[in-house]
Amino acid sequence: MDKPRFSIIVPVYNRIDEVRDLMASLDKQSLKNFEAIFVEDGSTLPCEEVLAEFPNVNARYFYKENEGRSIARNYGIERAEGDYFIFFDSDCVIPPDYFKILTAELDKNPTDCFGGPDAAHESFSDTQKAINYSMTSFLTTGGIRGGKVSLEKFVPRTFNMGFSRDVYNKVGGFREMFSEDIDMSTRIRNAGFSLSLIHPAFVYHKRRVDFKKFLRQVYVFGMSRITLKLLYPGSLKLVHALPALAVIIGAILVICGIFISPWFLLPIGVYLLAVFIMAWISTKSFVIALKAIPASVIQIVGYGCGFIKAYFLKIFLRRGRDVDEEIMLRKGK
Fold first, then answer.
1. 50-59: string of b/e by CB count within 10 Å (b at 16+)?
2. pTM of the entire structure?
3. 116 vs 200, 203, 306, CA distance in Å?
4. Which tens digits make up the pLDDT trace of 280-316?
5. Residue 176 neighbours by CB distance under 10 Å
6. Is 202 left (phi over 0), alpha (psi -120 to 50) or beta?
7. Which residues face 253 on adjacent strands?
8. Are 221 and 141 within 8 A, CB to CB?
9. CA atoms within 13 A on the CB side of 91
10. Which residues on adjacent β-strands are paired with residue 163?
11. Residues in Cβ contact with 266 at an 8 Å cutoff, skipping those fewer than 6 apart
């Protein structure tokens, strides 16, 4: 068998059904110039037998003790044979022409590191589609996760990210931390490598299946943004603080609306109406558009509260800063 051009690396923890869907999508690829490496990170429900269901996919399986997804990715990199490492989450489904498109794009415009956007597959639940809209809409993220219009430079994320072996040899692997993909992308850029958004190379990303899990996820995202600020002082931009500002302004408007005049609630109503209308236009579904309203509120409030809490503790009170600073010294190469 010829040496693969790409090595797909997927960390797995008790995700048998997700791995089956991912493998089924890899089996349907129109160009199979890749190997797929699955690193089971101490799961009690191993997925090795699932890989055997797809003999036409060049897949390899490794089991290791539970240490975290970043260490699992590094474990896979060390055993990969390709010249380019591709990272998917186990809850991704890959469109059939993904590697055909990726190969053509990299041949035409070579880049050291790339990322692509994500979308909602038609088989996803309405809640998943609403969450996906919230995570990709300009109204909620400013387009920083691969939108065509963005308030910040694009940063590849590990649900759809790739970089060359040369990058790994110079920069090293992922650090075991929250927002490890942003940290990795920042280190790659700081090392002088090129980063690109390949918009046609998108994946279907299932994300969280309910609002409670989604709230917990975005809350951690908000807290980890302050960790990244401490590691990279110039990395914090206004767009990252907008959800926190929205939480503060929203709280003031609600208080004023209750105790002074209901008219203070008008800006909140206008914003939520805009979310509903844009989601309806984007998804062509009234139900998804309705669910996009709580999804967007959860995203902004959860992220904003996490950001505010971490900023207060780590910037004002300087608590927990030693942990963040040690990440630079102890993790990665």
1. bbeebeebbb
2. 0.85
3. 7, 8, 26
4. 999 999 999 999 999 999 999 999 999 999 999 998 8
5. 18
6. beta
7. none
8. no
9. 14
10. 85, 113
11. none
